[in-house]
Amino acid sequence: MASISFRVRSKANKKAAIKIRVSIDRQNVFETNTGFSIHPKNWSSETGLPKQTTAENKQIQSNLKKLDAFVWENLNADSGGSVIIDQFWLEEKVASCFNRIEKTDIGLLVHYLQELIDNAATRKVKVPGGYKMGISKSRVNSFIATKNVIVEYQAIIKKQLHFLDLSETTVDKFTNWLLVTKKYAINTASKFVANIKTISREAERKGIPVHPFAKYIEVFSESDDDRYIQTLSFAEQKQILDTHFEREALKNAKKWLLIGCEIGQRAEDLLILTKKNVRYKDGRMFMDIFQEKTNKRVTVGVAAPHIIDIIENDFPYEISDQKFNDYIKEVCETAGINEMVEGKIFDALTDRKLLGTFEKYKLITSHCCRRSFATNYYRKMQTSVLMKITGHSRESIFLRYINQRENQDDNAELFIRLHEEIHRVGEPQLQVV
To answer: Which molecular-function annotations from GO does this UniProt entry contain (predicted)?
Structure first.
């Protein structure tokens, strides 16, 4: 049977915090501060309440009895539903009982997100060596999408969500709605949840009251088996290179596609490049690129002769990501990239991605450029070199990006191959004496 009690844990000669303890059963016992304190000598271990010797003690006892009744009332109500009774629940009830937390407009998730979006251009973002001004366009779009989906969810539950409402139960119900009701892809739903966690942590740093559970929100992702990655092999890139196009728009998209597969950058960084990004050193071509999403500056060495020729003699003109996505499907279709492969394609009727088997050209998007680069050169070059170009910070993230797992034999074989190449060019070798 559940029980509620109060206690003072300190025996020091000074005031100590009064704790409330809720015991559901042997496995579920929770305790937190009530916000009141008392000198241990004024505490009755027999009654579990303050001794009625002073007016202050009488007031504390009155408050504790009020809290006792409030917690019992909510415990009975919430135990009959789907609410999880835990430490966070108890902390919230203590705060709610005495109205210690005020729910303000800025404490509303959608209001906070809107303020963030409105001031995106002037927000400071930490970058290597300091700070830069302004959030990236892709990040702003992500926050806009998150705000819109929260607005939609609020209309369903007929309630505005505050940071104080982000209990485990609330977050679980929201996640379930995203995945089951709205049928969002796992990674899409995860991004919404991750953004809520991000703004919760920031709001708390600013002094806005936030539910204690918010910092423990778990961000999830789809398993490797659920990920369908499309890349263009070197042979397929050769097919595209050898294919002639009449339309100027397709010629231009073809050039961007081939360049993208050789320099490994995101579309938003790729499609704004100009000859100003090109420089030479010792007769070799380099491209200096700023990655907007990661706020990193990278330098890519350009070695493929056909890419050097395009950059030097026929540099493509700027194009939007949307147009690029449309055109490269036509480019790949004309080039015969029509192998039947499994993947996800956008369905306009359901406004979701549909899993199925399609001609490969239908699945090609701008992101295939970066993935093709990383996949094609993996195990042919040191992973650390590839990561410097793609901008990945950890090898585990890079490997997941190309749907690979670290293979110890591969690392050993790469060492042997590089060792052989080093000594084949005349490096001194150790001799057994």
So the answer is: DNA binding
Q: Are residues 12 and 151 in the same domain?
A: no
Residue finishing a domain among 97, 128, 161: 97
CA dist., res. 216 & res. 83, Å (int):
17
How high is the pLDDT of residue 243? 96
pTM recorded for the entire structure:
0.56
User: Which CB contacts under 8 angstroms, 24+ apart, belong to 74-82?
Assistant: 75/2, 75/4, 75/22, 79/2, 82/169
Tokens of 183: 């049928």
- Give the separation between CA 273 and CA 224, rounded to whole angstroms: 32
**Domain enclosing residue 286, as ranges:** 234-421
Closest by CA position to 233, among listed 319, 346, 339, 316: 339
The H-assigned helical ranges of 221-363 are 234-242, 248-263, 267-270, 305-313, 321-334
240 plus 362 within the same structural domain = yes
pLDDT along the chain (433 residues), means of 10: 87 86 89 92 92 92 94 85 76 81 74 91 75 83 94 88 91 92 88 95 92 88 66 95 96 97 93 95 94 85 95 95 95 96 82 85 93 90 88 79 67 74 63 52
- C-alpha–C-alpha distance, residues 413 and 39, integer Å: 70
Does 175 reside within a domain? yes
Phi-psi region of 130 (alpha: psi -120 to 50; beta: other; left: phi over 0): left
Nearest to 227 by CA among 326, 348, 390, 355: 355
- The answer to whether residue 373 sits within a structural domain is yes
Cα torsion 227, 231, 235, 239: sign: positive
Using an 8 Å Cβ cutoff, are 257 and 327 in contact?
no
Which residues are paired to 285 by β-bridges?
280, 302
The angle at the Cα of 320, spanning 316 to 322, to the nearest 5 degrees, equals 125
Residues 20, 32 contacting (CB under 8 angstroms): yes
Question: Distances in Å between the alpha carbon of 384 and those of 148, 220, 270?
Answer: 39, 26, 21
> Domain check: are 263 and 405 in the same one?
yes
- Please check whether residue 228 lies inside any domain of the structure: no
| Token pair belonging to 391 | 């901008």
Same domain for 117 and 217, yes or no, is yes
Same domain, yes or no, for 205 and 274?
no
Q: What pLDDT sits at residue 419?
A: 75
Give me the pLDDT at residue 227, please.
Answer: 66
- Interatomic CA distance for residues 373 and 261, integer angstroms: 5
